[in-house]
Amino acid sequence: MKAAVDERLDGLRGSAPRLTYSARSLAALENNPRCTLRAVLDASGSDKAAIAAHAGFPTPFGQSPFAIARGNAFEALVKANGCAELIRVLRETLKLTLPEVAYQDLNDVGGNASPEVRCTRTRQLLVNTALGKFPGTLYDHPMLRLQVGGHTVFLEPDLVAFRIEDRFHVVEIKSFPIIDDQADPAQVKAATTQASAYVIALRAMLAEAGIGPDAVSDTIVLVAPKDFTNSPTAAFVDARKQVATLTRQLTRIERIGDLVSLLPEELTFDLAVDEAGKAQRPAEELAAALDQVPALYRPDCLSHCEMAFFCRSRARACASLDVLGPTVREQLGGIDTATMALGLARGELTADVDQAEMAAALRHAARLRAEVLGQPGGAGAAA
Amino acid sequence: MVWSMSDPLDALETRISQLRRAIRDATATGDAERAAELRAQLRRAERAWDTLVDTDDASEETRAPQSAPALRVGGSMLPAREHVHRVLMLLGVPAAPKLIVSVHDAFFPGELTSAKLSSLRRDEERSYRAAPGSRPYYLCPALAYDLLSPVRALITVSTWTVEQRIIGPLSPRVDYLASAIRVAEAVQAAAGSGETGPSPAALRLLWRFAASIPDAAPTGPSSHERPVDPRQVMDAAGAELQVHIDADRADRAAAGRRAHRLTDAQQLFGTPLGDVSKLEAEA
User: Fold this and answer.
1) Do A103 and B172 make contact, defined as CB atoms within 8 angstroms?
2) Which of B45, B36, B47, B53 is nearest to B14 (CA)?
3) Does B275 touch chain A (CB under 8 A)?
4) Which residues of A touch B152 (CB under 8 A)?
5) Residue of B nearest to A84 (CA)
6) What DSSP string describes B5-54?
7) Among candidates B106, B132, B271, which has minimal Cα distance to B185?
8) Nearest-angstrom CA–CA distance, A35 and A39
9) Which of B69, B77, B123, B209 is the most exposed place for a label (fewest CB within 10 A)?
């Protein structure tokens, strides 16, 4: 059964090499779990950026090089001189005791930076620490491993996982500021989601050695610049909810077969790349293939999914309310498109039983709008 | 108050007496060229020794005025490796290129950039392998306590003992505190010299150290207007150092015993990663 699903997924991907999940694509699972298109593309390991570009919707800006450089510079600053700044911050906020300063660099193992070697070393050190055989505190860039849908994913917490009083805490170093103890909620959420993938991976690693999930705290330590300075500060972020959601989504990946079996047998997203590296498949054909998989567009897809521009154009084309975001969508429960909403407001469409209440509200809103704008009658008011 | 793990001065003195003996041998066998080369090395080792004695004096009791100015004389024309060596001798512990550059800017004349540093280390190893022992000292990477492999971006001097060049789990913090003490001493020495006092870069460097050591920076109202007191930094760093020092020494000594089994080149430049499974067996 499982092999058959893998075969189907390979078919969907076509000739392109398989891309593994990353912390980013795992975080997307939590962001938009109901999107079938994203689930199928990710599970099959397809190159979403290449597919979107070939279908005519290239992502115009990926991750900003300036943001990445800034992030790296801040991380280097925090970790410089044996994590001097980080130790200060953790002592202030987390009451880390004086002797807890042991530092392990896991960026490479004796000059060997391959993920397998680093992962082995990470597991060895962390398991020994958990068993109390090794007095570790700070672990710089450990390499964790997670099985997602039967495939190994290496996750490298861009951070230090560390231990306070016999519990591991995932520390996420981010360069967005915490101003007056407040940070941009969207940024914090993204950081937390990413960190919850690390929590899950860390727990899985310890579980192999027979250590329970309690050894890893589901509270994330977020280290970020304080106010308008460059000096770091730390805050606890509760990630219980996101860890739970992500765990559920990961088990759902195992059931990707259910989704795939609903798709047409011959469907593929193969770009038919020739030797010169140019995609030969006609763009219309590819777009048609993509259209066969239901997508659930939400405005915040733009910040984490490569297919977002493609999906937005499709959602706009059918006047879907998805384009307006979840707030509008929830207000207009039971109504899917802007055309239908306007039709009901103008009284041009007859509402069925489910929509009756919503239709009344819409007509009332249209009347109010007309009154405010001083136009006679509600029906003529175009939105 | 001075804290130095197995004194670099001792190492230099051993080196100096070795060189003297070698010169005598070379003259006895009539190898004038070799003798001349060894003499040059001897002079360099002696200069290093002088420099070191100066800084140590300064920190000891007199806060001798000659320290900083003496170091400033004619230093700008030295090659980069000499600059780095001088900084490392001041700090007395393995240091990252960034810290080396900051300390250099704070206390010494001439220009030193991190770009120069990265090429330097490769050259050092090449030079050593071409003609081992032909230079009085080499700049080499620190060694990881577990694998005895080179530690990324921490530079040491070959004249130090292997224990001094090993990085254990606690060593990054221990070395940080030790360099804080050395920097505070150098600032105090410069302040005592009366001429110009410590440079703004030196005060800034000291302030950065003080900020991340408990009780090292002045507290209370208007604390950020008052300058950091080098004395206070030394005391605070010394106090925290006491917490870690014994465990760290034990780690380094254990690793040092294993390192003595390696070849000379491996003791200086580390061993490449052999087999991770061996490590696992040990753990």
Assistant:
1) yes
2) B45
3) no
4) 105, 107-108
5) B212
6) SS-HHHHHHHHHHHHHHHHHHHHHTT-HHHHHHHHHHHHHHHHHHHHHHH
7) B106
8) 6
9) B77
- Grouping H, G, I as helix, E, B as strand and the rest as coil, residue B281 is helix
For residues A330 and A291, state if they share a domain.
Answer: no
Q: How far apart are CA A42 and CA A27, in angstroms?
A: 12
Q: Binning pLDDT at 50, 70 and 90, where does residue B63 land?
A: very low
The total domain count for chain A is 3
Contact A141, A107 (CB under 8 A): yes
pLDDT tens-digit profile of A217-240? 889 899 999 988 888 999 999 999
Q: Residue A85: list chain B partners with CB under 8 A.
A: 212
Residues A33 and A73 in one domain: no
Best residue in A93, A97, A101 to probe B by mutation, most B CBs within 10 Å? A101
**Is residue B232 in some structural domain?**
yes
Q: What are phi and psi of B229, to 5 degrees?
A: -90, 120
Give me the mean pLDDT over the A32-56 stretch.
Answer: 86
A29 pLDDT exceeds 80? no
- How does DSSP classify residue B59? H
**CB B140 within 8 Å of CB B269:** yes
pLDDT digits (tens, 9 = 90+) for B105-161: 999 888 888 777 877 877 888 888 888 878 889 999 999 988 888 886 799 999 999
Q: Are residues A255 and A245 in the same domain?
A: no
Domain that holds residue A114: 65-249
DSSP string, B163-230: HHHEE-SSHHHHHHHHHHHHHHHHHHHHHHT-SS-S-HHHHHHHHHHHHTSTT-S--STTTTTSPPPH
Is position B41 within any domain? yes
Contact yes or no for A239/A196 (Cβ under 8 A)? yes
- Indicate the helix (H) or strand (E) that contains B150: strand B150-157
Q: Which candidate in A81, A90, A97 is best for mutational testing of the B interface (most B CBs within 10 A)?
A: A81
Residues contacting residue B76 through CB under 8 Å, at least 6 positions apart = B109, B110, B111
Position A380 scores a pLDDT of: 47
Provide, as residue numbers in chain A, all residues whose Cβ is less than 8 Å from the Cβ of B272: 110-111
pLDDT at A187: 86
Tell me: pLDDT of B60 over 70: no
B176: nearest CA partner in chain A: A81
Q: Using alpha carbons only, what angle is made at residue B21 by residues B19 and B22, rounded to the nearest 5 degrees? A: 60
Q: Domain residues for B61?
A: 8-215+227-262
Contact B265, B132 (CB under 8 A): yes
Given a contact cutoff of 8 angstroms between Cβ atoms, the answer to whether B153 and B97 are in contact is: yes
Decide if pLDDT at B95 tops 80. yes
**B33 contact A CB<8A:** no
